[in-house]
Batch of 3 targets.
Target 1
Amino acid sequence: MNNNETEKKHHHARGRFSGRIGYVLAVAGSAVGLGNIWRFPYLAAKYGGGMFLLVYLLLILTFGYVLIVSETALGRMTRKSPVGAFAKFGKSFSFRFGGWINAVIPMIIVPYYSVIGGWVIKYLFEYLKGNSAALAADDYFSNFIASSGMAELWFLIFSALVFIVILAGVKNGVELVSKIMMPVLVLLAIFVAGYSVTRPGAMEGVKYFLIPNFENFSPMTVVAAMGQMFYSLSIAMGILYTYGSYLGKDVDIEASTKQVEIFDTAIALLAGLMIIPAVFAFSGGAPETLQAGPSLMFITLPKVFASMGFGGIAGFTFFLLVLLAALTSAISLMETSVSTISDELGWNRKKSCIIMAVVMLSIGSASAFGYGIWDFVTIFGMQILDFVDFLTNSVMMPIAALATCFLILKVVGLQTISEEIERSSKFKRKKLYGFFMKYLAPLCITIILLSSIANVLGWIHM
Ligand code: PFF
């Protein structure tokens, strides 16, 4: 059988993207989510503003690029999700570990992602009821998350939506929704960002966000930026292996990677411009607000909307779009988790969903209660949700990315990866790719990993 016939056979057995546009949209749909709109602005505000942004952009252009290209190429080459892809090259423990660490991460993320998704629905619901002014009050958000029952209820509602879509398998519906909603989200974000940056006092915030100030640099800036890069681009969690495995041999991997990165970063920048200048305009850039962490979006944006003439409608539309972006991402996290379980354990989708429901209920409820009745529980000084977020983004993802680097460097070989990429197009950044892969990636990932663990254990202070 020649190559083409092998290809055709595969495509009958396995789903396939229609082409580059389909692939870019699907990856962008998974990449753009709460990570861009909720997580990126609070990390940028907390870890140094312009300095964080600079480090983040450098990482996206170097590691981010190399890792997306690698995972996609490995997926397309093996036509397998991560566990299968690693197993194709070896059966020993290290291969199984490498595959599973990539595959387990989405299973841990999706529960707490859904807790935040629940907060979004709650705000949407309140805007629908016309409570715009109440939402803008100073302690509205902290009171809400402290009322554990409510936080749990909205988490369950968000999770139910995710499971309904997964079980109904309405993949096309989701794609259609995201194709229409994404452009609307971008327009609305441009509008809100424009409004935020023109408020009196907001320019200080724009400067803080866009101009790097070396005084604001700390090792945590790099650790946080790196975790955010993995999270936002859906790297090191099996997604890109899986999507790569559906990719045609004629699609230019480098060009599509570039498009995904531009799109994802543009949305994150817009979200930063909506939220950070507003912190300065509405709270005078108070350090406590800049350090607010996960609650930042929910504290700052309602103030922006309340100050607008038609803020109730703007608030409603905004949270609706964020909800849809969050849902498409949560669905892709859940879809990967369910398909890994059913592929590897040979269970059907329903049974795999039950396993995921148990995981969701335990990690998700613990995260939701962690700000309320369980607020006495702290792990290494972090509340439960913050800890799970840290564990996946700053510990597990670097390990997963390291596993991918080792697989390529020690087993598959840079040459084979290059050949895979060259099946569709010239490999323009081949030299750069080899350099980053060989020297920079493993070294930096190791340093980041060790420093974030040392920080948590209190050995160093970052
Ligand atoms: N990248 C998504 C975000 O920024 O919100 C989160 C995510 C979704 C990660 C889906 C991984 C994934 F498979």
Note: The pocket of 4-fluoro-L-phenylalanine is lined by residues 30-31, 33-36, 106, 231-232, 234, 237, 239, 329, 332-333, 336 (CB under 6 Å).
Target 2
Amino acid sequence: MKVTKAVIPAAGLGTRVLPATKSMPKEMLPIVDKPAIQYIVEEAVHSGITDILIITNRGKGLIEDHFDRVPELEARLTSGGPEKEKILKEIVDISHMANIYFVRQKETRGLGHAVNCARSFVGKEPFAVLYGDDVIIGEDPACGQLIRAYEEFGLVC
Ligand code: UTP
């Protein structure tokens, strides 16, 4: 069965990177010019994933905002003429990369519990899990390599 769904747990407290994460989600910390979680969503999309569930928590609203449209910002960039065209396209594209859904992990009870919050999203389908703070950059996305291995060998227990 083709793997088209991914789950990204992003509801942790980020205690190892305090105080940076006191009010900023760890997954939103920038790496050069993009938040970490955008690299992760891009990795999933480049691996053939079409539907992504991000597990969030209180105080993680910035993640939802990042993958949403921002009409006021887009209008400002549009009126900025040709020199703003490239960044306008980048900003709009972020919200069209995949079908992105969100669910809250109501208590921070660990990674396994976070993934379990995706139970009804994945149903009986195989799915990928990408940690919301684990950026892996490569020409051949790591997630895609794992999906190919799954498709070739099936579930290995
Ligand atoms: P981590 O263990 O790296 O995240 O989990 P953490 O709990 O925020 O780390 P500390 O506090 O710095 O030690 C890997 C991923 O799983 C998510 C985190 O947000 C991170 O993206 N996670 C972790 C959840 O979604 N729920 C949890 O209960 C724990």
Note: Residues 9-17, 26-27, 55, 105, 108-111, 113-114, 131-133 surround uridine 5'-triphosphate (CB under 6 Å).
Target 3
Amino acid sequence: MALIVHKYGGTSMGSTDRIKNVAKRVAKWHDAGYQIVVVPSAMSGETNRIIGLAKEIMADPDPRELDMIASTGEQVSVGLLAIALQALGKKAVSYAGWQVPIKTDSSYTKARIASIDDAKVNADLAEGKIVIITGFQGVDELGNITTLGRGGSDTSAVAIAAALKAQECLIYTDVDGVYTTDPRVVSDARKLNTVTFEEMLEMASLGSKVLQIRSVEFAGNYRMPTRVLSSLTDPLMPLAEEIVSGTLISFEEDTNMEQATITGIAFNRDEAKLTVFGVPDKPGIAFQILGPIADANIEVDMIIQNQSVDGKTDFTFTVPRGDYNKAMDVLNASVKEHIGAGNIIGDSKVSKVSVVGVGMRSHVGIASQMFRTLSDEGINIQMISTSEIKISVLIDEKYMELAVRALHKAFELEAA
Ligand code: ASP
Ligand code: MG
């Protein structure tokens, strides 16, 4: 019998009425002959609320105790859902992460899954039970409760689906799929029926935050077909319709090669850029500039080093806007003194816009079409970076939405 894993987000679990709807939907799938494992999030707002309690006592609480607290939201959800399913006459059993167990390393608040034991769950499924497992949490070697980082239930669900060799992992959420770009910026953005997991990684990391990015990595590594679909539809809608709804995150080989060259336009509004002028052009310089930035736990994204003139060069990189001041302080403290570079300047009002698509591998001219489109709009490109399936430009924040709209149109991504 085919096994399907369902994941429900906090909005879908947001009240007992919504939980009853989730139970109806799950029961419908079970009635249709599927084995079902459900991985819910905490009720919406709950994780924030309980973490907030800890922070009322102390600004920077012990991460072990934070995980002890944060993990409880999911425990309430699984119990309520089991009760709601039992109320519909279904056999259902809930488990916390440690009961399965879902073993993780000991990095509290951002633990990584090491292994998932399938014995207990498989035995329950064989008895016809619907199994409900907490998202977000696990247990380390020593029996401490851990959590997987905010939004971690997505990752729990895909990892559980992979461990149980499920046919598909369905992520039910409050949007009905993945779009060519954010519909709030481009009103005729189109819902994608499929997106490859590599494209999804680029779209997610570039700010299309539908799924926790680690869940997409899991889907890719374990080749687990994962579908994003809406939990706001009628829970009793015909299964045949529901099965093909939303967006399937698939693998490149599975998609037909005639697809469009570009899949979507991703963007990240909140970038900042820093430039160090007059850097001596000699071995170790990039490391000396970026080493202290990494030590300060700041993530660097785009990097450009110029051709040197008279032994001096300029070095520019981008960081998340929230880290801009910190990065500037680090540069001023370390780099200037030790490297003997010139001025440091920065701009905290820049945004990144990217065109993404595996079709780029087999088509030429995407970059020139992108640059022509931006030029036609009079938008200046400050930095460019590329990968096999993505071209990104850094531009003035003022023009971000204009750029996204123009590119969405130029690559004919709009809904028919
Ligand atoms: N409840 C956790 C959070 O709010 C995990 C999740 O919802 O995925 O981050
Ligand atoms: Mg989420």
Note: The chain has 13 helices and 18 strands.
